[in-house]
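Bug #77: duplicate submission created two jobs. Keeping one. Sequence:
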Amino acid sequence: MSKVFPALDEELRRFIEAQPMFFVGTAPSGSDGRVNISPKGYRDTFTIVDDHTVAYLDLSGSGAETIAHLRQNGRIVVMFCSFDRRSRIVRLHGHGRVVRPDEPEFAEVGATFNLDHPGKRAIIVIEVERISDSCGYSVPYMELKGERPVLDKVQATHSADQWEHRTAEENAHSIDGLPALDPDHPRPTPGEAAAGAGWTRLGRALIRGAGE
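Kept job's structure:
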């Protein structure tokens, strides 16, 4: 049976912190436009700020749907689900905002999790308005092999031209044409990216095991 919670209590925090990934859902306003659902990995990119506030480190990708939707209406849902013997789904509904790397709040909120990922694009801060869970009885059992280190590895090698193209072209608008990253949004530089590629020993081992 589903339940609505008044706040992110210790039991909910433990469940959220134990999950290796989460999903983010957003949509543009109105009857048109495309809904977006994005899977997020890396345990060290999500943090619980307080009983009604969470945040995650937004890493660069081939699109910027979440940022575009938040800029338009702020609506967002974050979903965690367990894949082990304890079936459970937790959803956090609320309103989010985008914090750029050149804003003072970026360092303040970012101090609570790992900022060493080379493709860091923004921090998404979410004011949680509804906290609920459900059974998750149909979610399959799966075993975690490890975190996939490929994103950090690839983005640590991006050139200045590649970051410029990604920021100014690929991430400038949503697929529906909504504005996403501003033209002056900070770009990582090759030097900063290489210095920020702080892979864990597990990540390095996985790369070696894959023949890299």
